[in-house]
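Worked problem 6 (solution included).
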Amino acid sequence: MSWYGLLRPLLFALEAETAHHLTLVALRELHRMGLSSAAAPAPDTCGRDVMGIRFPNPVGLAAGLDKNGEFIDALAALGFGFIEIGTVTPRPQPGNPPPRLFRLREARALINRLGFNNGGVDRLVENVGLAAYRGVLGINIGKNADTPLERAADDYLACLRKVYPLASYVTVNISSPNTQRLRELQQADELERLLGALKREQRTLARAHGRHVPLAVKIAPDLDPAQVGAVADALRRHEIEAAIATNTTLARDGVSELPHAAEAGGLSGAPLAARSTAVVRELASALAGALPVIGVGGITSAADAREKIAAGAQLVQLYTGLIYRGPELVRECIEALCGDRIGPQLDTDEHR
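Solution. The predicted structure is:
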């Protein structure tokens, strides 16, 4: 049994957010002591070229697990092909009051209403600078809760300017259900203004830094097909480099009778899988290859990862499944998507 399998019963006896933090701290300490393990490097056939970036394998960590970029090296040692940190906002903010993270164990799901709790973009930039990781790094940006919607673009632009030199790609989060009115940025007029401002700034930053950093936009699973099509049209028109589908859902289909199901916030984990995959399929069809889709939502097994790829995703990301399954899920998904056994686990130092 893995170290996570041994610790999980103890962690699940704790309040969910406390357990989340302790798990990351434990992982970081194991990594520092050289006791963490990772999958051997994936074979060359496992690599993917997406957004003009070479991903060593198609399985990534979704944003939200490491909001401040404090655990990058330890998480990278689990074998991910890419790491996405954040969501980060221009100024530090505490997020919504606790308790704000709840397990629905029977459904292998979580409900969170964290609300972009983070230490601000300057802290994240400092942490990234301290990390040894040199792989593919996505940085997920958002707006502060007290920033009016009509000034949301200012917050995204402020974050983009600061993370641009450090990021492999930047994700624009307009789909969290836990910041009031944020999802309105997915509506036609708001989306047009935001994407236009971001692309103009991206061009300016590319000239200043001598490198092009792609932009991805993360959307909600609660859009209907017409709304997905409208978002796809906007992404294509503004030449956004990727779409990430999806964030958490406000729906409670299949879990409404479970403890904590009535809590406010976004639902993630296994109950989200089918809806998220449907949005991936709708989005990929609407985009018709104009830009790639990254599939995330409800991946708790290798089969779930395959379904995302079959629906049209080029890459996948894990979050809630990792909490329930542990690092072995990363390995399983890589093996399933690469069609090749990766070989025995190696000590982290040997891996590097």
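Discussion: The CA atoms of residues 78 and 327 lie 6 Å apart.
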